[in-house]
Amino acid sequence: MLNASKDKGVKKKHDLSKWTYAELRDTINTSCDVELLDSCREEFHRRLKVYHEWKTKNKQRQAGGKDVERAPRSVLEQSGGEVAGLSSPRKAGGEEVQRYFRIPFVRPADEHRDEEYKKKGWWLAHFDGRWIARQMELHAEKEPLLLVAGVDDMKMCEMSLEETGLTRKRGAEILENEFEEEWAKHGGAKYLQNNLRLISSKFLQMKLGVKK
């Protein structure tokens, strides 16, 4: 009972319900307060989920709107796996755990076509702790799409790592060097340099020597 009361007190410590997107993003980009960072990221992604749910419900009303997916359907349709109040996975020194994934990605327009006509690509994701830091879409007949948290949040997967189910997909997790090889091959270094001041991942900030 004591622990339950303690947990409830921790959750109420940061009331972010009235914070603006800009305030949340600025705090995520600059704060070194681990507990506040976790709370801000949780609230930021909660709002992204609400926004995308609203957008999906109203998609039919948008004449000529493109059916753009932020992640493969197999990820977006995952349910369960979320643990309320779960903090980011960290190493002994307090650093966030970095994990990398690659799964097949069929474009929305091709999903209902015969198997032989489907144009399959790849979706790659880098998670800094619980939340996505970078993602890529690679298709044979399409320009690579590179996205970075802090810059492209509205276009990226808004789900936590637990919610995506990626850790439970056989063969989905890859090594860091495998992700970085693809990232570099498709102009990732230049993209990061062009957006240095906006990147929200602490791991990438440190890697790039960004001083906030």
Explain this structure to me?
By secondary structure, the chain is of the alpha+beta class. It has a domain at 70-79 and 95-208. The protein is built from 8 helices and 5 strands, in the order ααααββββαβααα. It has helices at residues 2-12, 21-30, 34-57, 73-76, 161-164, 176-185, 188-194, 202-208; strands at residues 98-106, 120-128, 131-139, 142-148, 173-174. The chain has a 5-stranded antiparallel sheet with strand order 4-3-2-1-5. Strand 2 and strand 3 (131-139) form a beta hairpin. The protein is globular and about 45 Å long. The relative contact order is 0.14. The model is unreliable at 1-12 and 79-85 (pLDDT under 50).
Please outline the helices and strands.
Layout: H1 2-12, H2 21-30, H3 34-57, H4 73-76, E1 98-106, E2 120-128, E3 131-139, E4 142-148, H5 161-164, E5 173-174, H6 176-185, H7 188-194, H8 202-208
Antiparallel strand pairs: 1-2, 1-5, 2-3, 3-4
Major β-sheet strand ordering: 4-3-2-1-5
Report the C-alpha radius of gyration, rounded. Answer: 18 Å
Per DSSP E runs of 2 or more residues, the count of β-strands stands at: 5
The low-confidence runs, each spanning 5 or more residues with pLDDT under 50, are: 1-12, 79-85
Order of helices and strands: HHHHEEEEHEHHH
Query: Helix- and strand-based class?
Result: alpha+beta
Helix segment tally: 8
Which band does the percent of strand residues land in? 15-25%
Distance between the termini: 41 Å
Mean pLDDT: 80
| Helical residue percent band | 25-40%
Shape annotation? globular
How is the main sheet built? 5 strands, antiparallel
